[in-house]
Each structure stands twice: as C-alpha cells, then as structure tokens.
Specification:
The complex is a heterodimer of chains A (184) and B (88).
Chain A (H helix, E strand, L loop, with lengths): L1 H6 L7 H22 L1 E2 L7 E2 L5 H26 L6 H10 L3 H8 L12 H33 L3 H27 L3
Antiparallel strand pairs in A: 1-2
Helix pairs in contact in A: 2-3, 2-4, 2-5, 3-4, 3-7, 4-6, 5-6
Chain B lengths: L12 E6 L6 E7 L8 H12 L4 H8 L3 H20 L2
Helix pairs in contact in B: 2-3
The chains are: A mainly alpha (184), B alpha+beta (88).
Chain lengths: 184, 88
C-alpha cells in the first residue's frame, strides 16, 4: 500500500482528480522554491541558484511539467495501441512531480558557498546532494509509472519509449529554459 | 473450469458433453468458445464490464481504480483475445 502511494499512485488516481492535486502540489512547491531559491530548470532538474522574481518559479514549474507531459502524450500517441487521454497524461505527470516538494524544502538546508568553506559545509552539502539523488530517482520511478499507466506502455517497449521520451523532454525543456534565462 | 493444460499449458478442448436428463453422451473434440479461453479473472472482468453497460468510468468507480488502469486491463484482454484468434 505504502509502496503504491510512493511509486504508483496512478493505479487508483489519474485524470482530472490527479491533475487538480498535481497542480496544487506544483503551486505549493513553486512557492516554497521561491523562498529556498530552488530552481526546477528541466524535466528532471533541480538546482539551487539565484533569487529571481516569484513568477519565474511558477513558470519553471509550468514549463518543466508541461513539456514532459506533452512529450509523453505524443510518445503515447505514436507507440501505444490504446486510446490515451491527454488529461490522464497531464494529471499523472503533474502528480509524479510531488517529490520535488521535498527537494524545494531541502533548498533551505543548502549552505551558501561563500559564507563558510570547510568540513561542516562539506558534510551538509554531501547529505543534501545524496538526498537530492534519492529524490531524483524517486521522481523518475514515479514518472515511469505515470507514463506506463496513462499511455498503456509496459515491459521493454514501455521502458524504451519512456527513456527516449524523457531524454527528448529534457532536451526541449533545457532549450526552453535557455531562452527564459536570457532575460536575466 | 480449467482453460489450459496443467501439465503442458496447451489450450484445453472439450472431449465429451453429457445430458443430465437422459444421460446421452456426445464425444468429440470441441474447441472452447472464445470467452472460455480467457483466464477466470479476465472472464470476471468481462462480466463486470457488461454489467456496467460497457462504461469504463463506472467500472473504475466500482473497482476503485483509475480510468486508465481499467482501460489498460480491457486493452490487455482485447490483445489476449486477438492472440487466441491468431492461434486458430
């Protein structure tokens, strides 16, 4: 049961309900990220960075989620034999980003690189980095199940399609963020 | 009712049918109907699906599963039926 909530809540939750919950979590995550200066600048990326206007954090969440969902949907249309619904892909992909909520909170613990350089700084940095890697893996597992359930792509075909879709989403989102950050 | 051989996994066939009223026995080698060649779980899913008037949304509510999960279950059954048809 806990494993299902952690890695595959989409078995029971998808469509507009997942979209509503997912968007609410994205919004709260963007607000927290604004305070912790955590930037979600890619389909899978999270970086600590400069303090930017609040709207940038909302736009980052929208771009990262939107591009991932659209690429997943198009991949599903191409490779799946099922009649897939856009609302399922949008909803499950939004909900799959909930581990980033914890990533945004982790941002508060990140030490300022210029304030103190030494062992305490290094230890905190290592712990946060390790936790970030775990969250990233958790996010990928959730994204895979979101893709698999909403597009009905499983086994080796599903895994291959997911890897390709994720790489494409990452590349497109990186290009989008490049143009976004040109303004700063 | 078993639908595949417990020893080798091959598809089972009906060898004889009997009338419970007059004890007439018809022997032969009859292929199971399409639906009986599915697993009991798949058969139950189809029965539930028909009872829901073919609505995946109602099925999802009753099974407490998401819509795409139920649609995927149906699509998996469809692909198994097609596989069985191709075995003919």
């Amino acid at each position: 049961m806990i494993q299902e909530i952690l890695f595959n809540p989409f078995k029971k939750l998808a469509g507009s309900k997942a979209l509503g919950i997912g968007l609410a979590i994205l919004l709260v995550t963007a607000v927290i990220a604004g305070f912790s200066h955590c930037h979600f600048d890619g389909a899978l990326d999270a970086h600590m960075g400069a303090d930017l206007p609040a709207w940038v954090y909302y736009l980052e969440a929208l771009i990262a989620w939107g591009i991932t969902a659209l690429v997943f949907y198009l991949t599903g249309v191409i490779f799946s034999t099922s009649k897939i619904r856009l609302v399922d892909v949008l909803g499950t992909t939004a909900l799959a980003r909930y581990p980033f909520f914890f990533m945004a909170i982790l941002g508060f613990g990140m030490p300022e690189p210029t304030s103190s350089v030494g062992l305490p700084f290094a230890n905190t940095y290592i712990v946060i980095s390790l936790l970030s890697v775990l969250i990233a893996i958790w996010n990928i597992a959730l994204l895979y199940h979101a893709f698999s359930v909403s597009c009905n792509l499983k086994k080796s075909k599903g895994v291959k399609a997911f890897i390709v879709a994720l790489i494409v989403a990452e590349i497109i989102s990186k290009i989008a963020f490049y143009f976004l950050y040109l303004n700063f | 009712m078993p639908y595949c051989c417990p020893a080798c996994g091959s598809e089972m066939q009906v060898r004889s049918l009997g009338c419970p009223r007059c004890d007439t026995l018809v022997s032969g080698s009859f292929r199971l109907p399409e639906l009986l060649r599915l697993s009991p779980d798949d058969q139950q899913f189809i029965v539930d699906f028909v009872k829901c008037s073919g609505s995946l949304k109602i099925m999802a509510q009753q099974l407490k599963l998401s819509y795409p999960t139920v649609r995927n279950l149906l699509d998996d059954i469809i692909s198994r039926i097609k596989e069985n048809e191709n075995k003919k």
